[in-house]
Amino acid sequence: MTESHNKGPLRQLFGIPVVVAALGYFVDIYDLLLFSIVRRSSLSALGVPDAELFGQGEFLLQVQMAGLLLGGIIWGIMGDKRGRLSVLFGSILLYSLANIANGFVSTVPQYAMLRFVAGVGLAGELGAGITLVSEVLPTKLRGYGTALVATIGLFGAVLANFVAKAFDWQIAYFIGGGLGLILLVARISVFESGIFLDVKKQDVQRGNLLQLVNNSVRLRKFLGCIFIGLPIWYVIGILITFSPEFAPALGITEPIVAGDAVMWSYIGLAFGDLTSGFSSQLLRSRKKVVLIFILLTMIFVLFYLFFPIVTSTGFYVACFLVGFGIGYWALFVTIAAEQFGTNLRSTVATTVPNFIRGTVIPVTLLFKFLRAEIGIVNGALVVGVITIIIAIWALRAVDETYSRDMNFIEE
């Protein structure tokens, strides 16, 4: 830690932990979003009729998110008990192997099983990376570092789109798995967090989930950390994943490619993450910036659903804008990491983003019910408004953590 802090700001910001965490998240996003991009082509290749692509796609997305939910708990606890690096190595190995195997599936049940396993593996990458970076960087650089990790990582969606266009969906899965295995070699040079190593020597509980629920203050902050991210996965899980189905309902006659919608939304998300991370440092506040971006999300969702767009180009612009609006993803995870002590930090920073990813399951079920009752557009609007209201309410439950010293523990 001393050696790290003796380096200049730029050398710390672009040091090995930040770069490797960013590359890890890049591969993570590639693999996580690849299913949304190849959903229709892969299911068609497996013999699923066109009329069932929407429903089967919803099912597989829910299975993948269930894996993320379980993996968030497993990797979060492991990160606090065994260390941040153990998660960075173990998670990427699991999801890399699962994605390679995904290229060999021949039935939907096989596809579902491997999306679940991949989801478990994918759950560990971001939380462990953000935890490590937030602990090795000084306060004045923490927001910049986590923003860089997310911004670089989110461009994995762009690569996934280009690969899916250039190669068969099976090859796209092989490439994702191969990238993960290559990254394992780079991980060898990463050092463990000094703050964690100090706590490891102490006689304190680490990674105990009960500590989050047996104290009302911690439980309130934990739930607040989860629900401020609800609009993010509403946008990704509904508006973007099912963009080919939304486009005709919005009066767009030109064909919409799911991969392009994902790519443009994630480019917007990357720029949003960079903007929100840097803004939180300049304004010296996490909560104010998150509130601004939640409100922007609401404005851009209304634009996506109701602005009279008639071309595919205009639709992709809308995808970019809603992506920018939810560009507080890295800030949301950073807030979670900063809320809690070192002995619970990985547990929280890893479970929170995956619990919110897991909310895609009830959100898509609610959307499925509403679209049958009031149509796809109005159904999406109702779900979106609900997620925005919950997120604003949840923001009140978390602490402002901009200048918080990370070297403390939960008793």
SSE string, helix = H, strand = E?
Answer: HHHHHHHHHHHHHHHHHHHHHH
Global outline: globular
> What do we call the CATH topology?
Growth Hormone, Chain: A
Major β-sheet annotation: none
Radius of gyration: 20 Å
CATH architecture: Up-down Bundle
Query: Mean pLDDT score, rounded?
Result: 87
Assembly annotation: single chain
| Helix proportion | over 70%
Tally of individual helices: 22
Report the strand count: 0
Uncertain segments are: 1-5
Kindly report the name of the CATH homologous superfamily: MFS general substrate transporter like domains
Give a quick rundown of the structure.
This protein has 411 residues and is mostly helical. The protein has 22 helices and no strands. The protein has a single domain (2-189, 209-395), classed as MFS general substrate transporter like domains (Growth Hormone, Chain: A), CATH 1.20.1250.
Key attributes of the depicted protein:
79% helix; globular; 411 residues; Growth Hormone, Chain: A; mainly alpha; single chain
